[in-house]
Design brief:
Elements lengths: L4 H15 L4 H7 L3 H30 L9 H36 L7 H23 L24 H29 L12 H34 L12 H35 L6 H15 L14 H13 L1 H15 L8 H23 L2 H7 L3 H31 L5 H27 L16 H31 L29 E2 L6 H4 L5 E3 L8 E5 L6 E6 L6 H15 L4 H21 L6 E3 L7 E3 L1
Antiparallel strand pairs: 1-2, 2-6, 3-4, 4-5
Helix pairs in contact: 3-4, 3-5, 3-16, 4-5, 4-6, 4-7, 4-8, 5-6, 5-18, 6-7, 6-18, 7-8, 7-9, 8-9, 8-11, 8-14, 9-11, 12-14, 12-15, 14-15, 15-16, 18-19
Length: 641
Amino acid sequence: MTLPADVIEREALELDRVWSDRQGFWGWLTTTDHKSIGKRYVATAFLMFVAGGIEAALMRAQLARPGNTLIGPDRYNQLFTTHGTTMMFLFAVPIMTAMGLYFVPLMVGARTVAFPRLNAFGYWTYFVGVVFLYVSLFANTAPDVGWFAYPPLSGPEYSPGHRVDVWAQVVTFTEIAALVAAVNIIVTTFKMRAPGMSLNRIPLFVWAQLVVAFMIVFAMPAVATGSTLMLAADRAITMHWFNPAEGGDVLLWQHVFWFFGHPEVYIIFLPAMGFITPIIETFTGRPVFGYTALVLSNITTAFFAFGLWVHHMFATPIPEVGQSLFTAASMVIAIPTGVQIFCWIATLWGSKPRLTVPLLFVLGFLFTFVNGGITGVMLASVAFDKQAHDTFFVVAHLHYVLLGGGVMPLFGALYFWFPKVTGRRLNETLGKWHFWLFLIGVNLTFFPMHILGLNGMPRRVYTYLAETGWGTLNLVATIGAVTIATSVIIFLIDVVMSLRGGELAGDNPWNSSGLEWATASPPPSFTFLHTPFVTGRHPLWDVKDGLPVVTGLSTRERQVLVTTTVDALPDYRHSMPSASIWPVYLALCMGVVFIGSIFSPYFVLGGLGISLLGLLGWGWSGVGERQEERVALPDGAVKVL
């Protein structure tokens, strides 16, 4: 049965009226639309990528020749700490979860995320952390003890003032935002999938986001607790967690931090793996080889990621038996990643791929990430790690993995889904310039750092003597950094030009198979006119004569369909809350609590007091909005749109 055109048009107008936000600044401020929040996350996080890149460029300029005096040691310490904090906490994790917050509902056939207001609160909390760190940098009070803030250097004895306190509270803001995003992704994936999308039909992008969400739930509380209740408390009220004279232990911080810090690498890396599969499927025109193997590889990687943290501590006095166990685990985790790479190569093998910009970035990822992974296996060996520890070899490995394994797939994803979000294509010619310059720049910048590290150059030095012989390779690395910066500038120019007058893309320009392409590009406020009905892993390829949909949801309120966890059978209709100012208000209250705690405990009490008003307003404004009604699929509920 096909729905009449006049019925479709009338329902679309009614739904747009219900789901659209108010016009003007107030509507922008109070929106809870997951698409708007996702775009803000991506834009803010990419701005942080640019900021972190500028900081890196300044450091490379300082190191371009020996004995340089462009930047003094104090400002250099602030720059490399802010650079690391920005890239790890304010760019990499937020942009990966933001892609999930935007696309997971589209890919599972939902109109929104499970908790829209909580989603908005997460973004504004993250935004407060961003503003706080960069105000501190321009006020000359940015953190200066490295992005992992080891005591005793970060303790009150060696770091007086509030620079370390800034770092601790910025971390707290970002972890709250990450936990909020994780909860939304988990519940949306398990309870809001389209009917028919059983667990074995979930897109691999969604599987990656789901696995990472669980990793966030288990990993982030460690660093949030460590930064706020341990490090900040040590500094503010002398708790002595890390003071050996009072029974504390400085290595406790390293255990707490790296229990989060190493899973964080995979929290960044696994979503990138989720980007790769739909890109390869689309441009080879075939389903990916080894769906089950790819899912199990994601889960296995997440499991082993929590058993590797001590390989960051091989230079500390830990038992040799423990070192050998963590060496073994650090090498074993390469196996599931290798399985994924072989599945992608098997999909590409024998196909006739379209070498578009998204696929070029995937191919660049395969080359660059494998190189970075090999040096990771080298560093897993205790004997080698002790020689290379705290040298530029480690810096090179980290950046090969993060830029090759995270940023390259991210750029591919941005080119791939840009038409979905904006309705316009990015320019292919500029995109290819961007790709080749970025690929060359990454290798030109970081490959020489391996040699510098093996030649003994320690990281975190702001200058060096000409007699060391490190000048030439540092100059090459700086030229590479300029190349990377040029490539990113080309990308930004491409984005601006495409937004202003780029080629119109159509609803599904790549002929892709996912549900996100089953709605208009860009998606309307209500995302899906009717909830799709899924019959396979590739909905738009499995059905040629029109996508089946489920009807019956109200067009007079923000109503969604909730399904069962395993088989995605219709369970009940649920009414979602409307837009609200309270998420913004509560995020500002959190700012008062955590930023104010640096200066006085009274800010904590005051901030919590005004937060109660926000909680009451949040709860009161939701009264009467949340309604549930048990449903089943009656005869005739499934139609063809």
